[in-house]
## 1
Amino acid sequence: MEANDYKGRVKPSWCPGCGNHAVIMALRKAMATLNYQTHETAVISGIGCSSRFPFFMSTYGFHTIHGRALPVAIGVKEARPQTNVIAVGGDGDGLSIGGNHFIHAARKNPNITYIMMDNEIYALTKGQCSPTSRIGTTTKCNPYAWTADRINPVLMALSFNASYVARGYSGDVKQLENLILGGLQHKGFAFIHIISPCVQYNKVSSYEKIKELSVPLPDNHDLEDRANAMKYAFSSEGLYMGLFYKTERQTYEDRYREIIKKAKSQSCDNITVKDVMKQFQ
């Protein structure tokens, strides 16, 4: 497979310069490296600019409702375990209306990859502030300074014990490709936070600004030290990029199949309804 084999019939309709162009390019390259077959892969999205993603891929796709990409992605993986499932969405979709699903997906550890494209704004609806907008941000839709503290997606993922946590930047496609490749190969819930600048509605977090703030994680960073990873995620010294945390633990699918196997091994031939009801008396 080549990266171009994953191009859909619909061309990306994102604005010229949008960071999402780099994300889809990096994902296609990572998928080609792993020789993903289009009929064995599904891309699931919510609502927003970045959630148009499935239309631009030649894989199976599901454009769900706002904030619901993760539960649908988990359902697809459970129904068809052999499918490569990739959930995609923006900061508003994943951290506002979909924030609760993010928490439970991380702790359940389903074997899926979740790519969050963060432009710190609701761009599809013309520039409202989002959960990751910085205090003081003003837009055409929000002419007065934004007053709410911003969410730190990487710190959230680490606190929820996601088993693979990374952050990249749309200005560095090669880094994105490597982080996404690692996420696709990881067995468990892989969360990849990507700073993806919006050139139309967010003039604060520009490519230049993000590049200035970006700091690579140290080469000797212990990937299994979650507390230390949180320090880097919480740091005010810069915006750390790279793989923060990676650990192996039982996936949601593995646990679920153990329960099914145990249930099937227990004979119910001689159990009556009355026997079942006695358990609740």
Note: The mean pLDDT is 93.
## 2
Amino acid sequence: MALDEVTEHLSGSKDAYNKWVGVYIGVLAVLLAICNVGGANATKDALQSNIGASDAWAFFQAKNIRRNSTTLAANELELMLAAQPTIPEEVKRRFEEKIKEYRTETQRLTTDPAKKEGLDELFTKAKGLEVDRDVALAKDPYFDWSQAFLQIAIVLASVHLIIGNVWLLLLSGGLGTLGLVLMANGFTLAVRLPFIG
């Protein structure tokens, strides 16, 4: 049905006016559905980022423990080698090779650009996931408030249809607009309001 046909169909007296209010309520319901999806996605994104950050930090801790163990082993071999200056050259060479192997492993555990699994890379990854989580958590309250205002706007417009109080419709329009603005801010986080969240 074209817009002209809708306008022609709805043109008329009180019945047409009520139909336009019904269309307005339908638009509010669509906005409420979109807001619901945005809020659910923000919650899901926050949860996924939090799990990812937790996993990255756990992996970071395990790698750090392993790096510390490897460093301690290398230090212990160096002390043993220094304590025995008369050690045969072949044994000394094997000690030095093992120390070098441990030091190389320590460096690989610290930074591993190839696999992106060194401590430096894991730290950066975990911090990035924490930022993503915090952004998603900051978005969620805007969707919550938007849903509340849109639901109240729908109720007020519906009550207006029953009792015909124009002030209810105006209040519904104000709350619907506020809900729309909060929903848009939930998607963009253009403004952070201190009293929300």
Note: Helices lie at 3-10, 14-83, 89-110, 119-163, 166-188.
